[in-house]
Design brief:
Elements (H helix, E strand, L loop, with lengths): L14 H12 L1 E2 L1 H12 L5 H15 L4 E2 L1
Parallel strand pairs: 1-2
Helix pairs in contact: 1-2, 1-3
Length: about 70
């Protein structure tokens, strides 16, 4: 069986800012947030401001300021 072309995953408009708000309020990064970050990291069409938000979240995880659930 041949695999058909699978379209790349895309974030919904405003998803990064919603993710930032949710993570900031809870201090936790859940599975859906992790998938969103993964998709955002692979997206070459992010605005510069969105890229900065993604980097900020990732740095906070690395520093231990956010709990990964």
């Amino acid at each position: 069986m041949a695999f058909s072309h699978i379209p790349p995953a895309q974030l919904l408009p405003g998803a990064i800012y919603q993710m930032l708000a949710d993570i900031s309020c809870s201090g936790e990064v859940h599975e859906g947030d992790r998938y969103g970050l993964m998709v955002a990291c692979c997206d070459d069409h992010l605005q510069e401001e969105e890229r900065l938000v993604v980097n900020r979240i990732i740095r906070s995880i690395i520093r231990g300021q956010l709990q990964v659930c």
